[in-house]
Amino acid sequence: MTTDTLSTKDKILQAAAEIAKEVGPVHLSLDAVARRAGLSKGGLLYTFPTKAKLLEALVEQHVSEFDESLRREEAARNHGPNSVVLACIAVYRAEFVCNEPEPSGILAAIANDPGFLEPIRRYNKQLLQRMRDNAEDPTLAMMVFLTIEGLRSLKLFEMGLLSKAEQIAAIDRLKNLFEPADPEMADVPVPA
Amino acid sequence: MTTDTLSTKDKILQAAAEIAKEVGPVHLSLDAVARRAGLSKGGLLYTFPTKAKLLEALVEQHVSEFDESLRREEAARNHGPNSVVLACIAVYRAEFVCNEPEPSGILAAIANDPGFLEPIRRYNKQLLQRMRDNAEDPTLAMMVFLTIEGLRSLKLFEMGLLSKAEQIAAIDRLKNLFEPADPEMADVPVPA
DNA sequence: TGTACTGTACCGTCCGGACGGTAATGTCAA
DNA sequence: TTGACATTACCGTCCGGACGGTACAGTACA
After folding, report:
1. Which residue in A147, A172, A190 has the most chain B C-beta atoms within 10 A of its own C-beta, making it the best mutation to test that interface?
2. B175 contacts in A (CB within 8 Å)?
3. pLDDT digit string (tens) for A44-60?
């Protein structure tokens, strides 16, 4: 039951993200989503009673998926110093290596109603705080956050500026800023 | 005449960006833009014969404004080494200090038609190339590009994560990576 | 017997865009 | 310098279509 529901939900969510990406959030219609997801409009409205609920789910899905991965990576690092920053880098690296699709759904949600930014704002605020509190060099943590945000943005808008290798190199260089055993080296970047 | 025309155009462009920001790009209607810009729908359609043309102008305006500022800053640095990166940082810093509004218009354009990403993609590709070619440390140039992109993204989505002071500090720290007279220090960040 | 849909028909609203004006200003030739 | 026409910069109205959402009858599986 739950599995079936989730599966249908996921199909819808995926369809919505795809359509938003293809034709732009403005032209994301429930009819098109239903068609792509392989069910009727009635069925779609049965699962998500309004368009707003669908968009909300799109945002929720993305944030909670990221958070789950992050917590897992943090735990794997025993919540030690810099674990939040490193976990964040690891999650982004993984979702990048696994070729996860860009979250066009979020864009669609925001385009429909800027109010959907609020939960994301809240989450990011709290995340950045945790990154800094847990990092040995808070300023550097902020720089990492910004760089990842830059990579994310490039991905979100499908700018094909950097090759996969370049992006992974950037991520790994970021990681190296934190991982050297010698703490005095923590804010010295490795040479190119 | 021309001044009047430009003024009307600018009023429309500004109105469109404001509305997009307030109600979301999806709900950006020509009627609303006309109302906000203080003219009739007919007058609006006279200035921009289609909605697509309006959105195109929104994108064009933003890109060309940035490019003009950039070229100016580059020239001020006599096109010497690192001048592109430094100019880029300076432009972003200036438009940030001057409290320029976030370019919600671009979001609106993209939301209407992802095709509007293409010119931006092209511009960014060429910009990044120029940054690297002109920089003493191309990898570091890329990192700067990503960090600025991160700050941009934060601004675009109005995440109020970093205080003004923090953002300026981040920008200036970025600048310091390139500006020290001693070239051997070029990729060592100043301590926080 | 109910949960999870399908399929269809329909309603009200909104929107982009076309169109037909019009008033003010400019141009130019007789 | 005046009358004829052109251009610019708008106004107000209308329409076809799309979209979100409702309602409801039917169906298939468990």
Report:
1. A147
2. none
3. 999 999 999 999 999 99
